[in-house]
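Wait, can you check?
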Amino acid sequence: NGRFNATVETFDNGDNFNLATDEFVAPIKGIYQFNWTCYSSSSSGRTFLYVNGSAKMQTNSNDKSIAITLSLNAGDKVYLGGNSSFTMRWYGAVAHNSFSGHLVMGL
Protein backbone atom coordinates (compact mmCIF):
# COMPACT_ATOMS: atom_id res chain seq x y z
CA ASN A 1 0.00 0.00 0.00
CA GLY A 2 2.99 2.30 -0.12
CA ARG A 3 3.51 2.80 3.60
CA PHE A 4 5.61 5.85 4.50
CA ASN A 5 9.14 4.53 4.93
CA ALA A 6 11.02 6.78 7.33
CA THR A 7 14.76 6.54 6.92
CA VAL A 8 15.81 9.27 9.35
CA GLU A 9 14.57 9.96 12.85
CA THR A 10 15.43 13.47 13.98
CA PHE A 11 13.88 13.56 17.45
CA ASP A 12 12.20 10.82 19.46
CA ASN A 13 12.56 11.56 23.16
CA GLY A 14 10.46 8.58 24.29
CA ASP A 15 11.57 6.13 21.57
CA ASN A 16 7.94 5.85 20.42
CA PHE A 17 8.55 5.79 16.66
CA ASN A 18 9.66 2.43 15.31
CA LEU A 19 11.86 2.80 12.20
CA ALA A 20 11.51 -0.93 11.45
CA THR A 21 7.69 -0.78 11.17
CA ASP A 22 7.31 2.97 10.40
CA GLU A 23 4.76 3.28 13.20
CA PHE A 24 4.33 5.65 16.09
CA VAL A 25 3.12 3.81 19.20
CA ALA A 26 1.27 5.97 21.74
CA PRO A 27 3.00 5.61 25.13
CA ILE A 28 0.00 6.84 27.15
CA LYS A 29 -3.70 7.59 26.67
CA GLY A 30 -4.06 11.17 25.49
CA ILE A 31 -4.66 13.77 22.83
CA TYR A 32 -1.99 13.76 20.10
CA GLN A 33 -1.33 16.00 17.13
CA PHE A 34 0.24 14.63 13.95
CA ASN A 35 1.62 16.59 11.02
CA TRP A 36 2.89 15.40 7.70
CA THR A 37 4.07 16.74 4.39
CA CYS A 38 4.08 14.43 1.42
CA TYR A 39 4.89 14.42 -2.24
CA SER A 40 3.99 11.54 -4.53
CA SER A 41 5.56 10.50 -7.81
CA SER A 42 2.04 9.33 -8.78
CA SER A 43 -0.58 11.81 -9.93
CA SER A 44 -3.31 9.63 -8.38
CA GLY A 45 -1.53 9.04 -5.07
CA ARG A 46 -3.33 9.67 -1.81
CA THR A 47 -2.05 9.62 1.72
CA PHE A 48 -4.03 7.98 4.50
CA LEU A 49 -3.33 8.33 8.21
CA TYR A 50 -4.09 5.01 9.91
CA VAL A 51 -4.71 4.21 13.57
CA ASN A 52 -4.47 0.49 14.29
CA GLY A 53 -5.05 -0.28 10.61
CA SER A 54 -8.15 1.91 10.23
CA ALA A 55 -7.95 5.02 8.01
CA LYS A 56 -8.77 8.18 9.97
CA MET A 57 -7.97 10.78 7.30
CA GLN A 58 -7.03 10.91 3.64
CA THR A 59 -5.78 13.54 1.27
CA ASN A 60 -4.52 13.76 -2.26
CA SER A 61 -0.79 13.70 -1.91
CA ASN A 62 1.04 16.18 -4.03
CA ASP A 63 2.72 18.91 -2.05
CA LYS A 64 0.37 18.98 0.93
CA SER A 65 0.95 19.79 4.57
CA ILE A 66 -1.66 18.18 6.80
CA ALA A 67 -2.40 18.15 10.54
CA ILE A 68 -4.84 16.13 12.63
CA THR A 69 -5.59 15.90 16.34
CA LEU A 70 -6.62 12.48 17.70
CA SER A 71 -7.52 10.85 20.97
CA LEU A 72 -5.38 7.71 21.34
CA ASN A 73 -5.11 4.91 23.87
CA ALA A 74 -1.77 3.64 25.11
CA GLY A 75 -0.42 1.19 22.55
CA ASP A 76 -2.34 2.59 19.56
CA LYS A 77 -0.26 2.49 16.36
CA VAL A 78 -0.26 5.40 13.91
CA TYR A 79 1.25 5.36 10.43
CA LEU A 80 0.90 6.83 6.93
CA GLY A 81 0.35 4.99 3.68
CA GLY A 82 -1.83 4.34 0.67
CA ASN A 83 -4.44 1.64 0.16
CA SER A 84 -5.33 -0.92 -2.52
CA SER A 85 -7.09 1.71 -4.67
CA PHE A 86 -4.57 4.51 -4.14
CA THR A 87 -1.07 3.12 -3.78
CA MET A 88 1.27 5.79 -2.48
CA ARG A 89 4.61 6.12 -4.27
CA TRP A 90 6.65 8.48 -2.15
CA TYR A 91 8.93 10.86 -4.02
CA GLY A 92 12.42 9.87 -2.91
CA ALA A 93 13.93 13.20 -1.87
CA VAL A 94 14.18 13.43 1.94
CA ALA A 95 13.20 17.10 2.03
CA HIS A 96 9.84 16.43 0.37
CA ASN A 97 8.33 14.14 3.03
CA SER A 98 8.00 14.37 6.78
CA PHE A 99 5.90 12.90 9.59
CA SER A 100 5.78 14.21 13.14
CA GLY A 101 3.59 13.97 16.19
CA HIS A 102 3.44 14.96 19.81
CA LEU A 103 1.36 14.53 22.92
CA VAL A 104 -0.90 17.55 23.51
CA MET A 105 -2.15 16.27 26.89
CA GLY A 106 -2.53 13.04 28.77
CA LEU A 107 -5.99 11.76 29.70
Q: What stands out?
A: The chain is about 0% helix and 45% strand. The two ends are 33 Å apart (CA to CA). The chain has a mean pLDDT of 83. The beta strands are 17-18, 23-25, 30-38, 46-51, 54-60, 64-72, 77-81, 98-106.
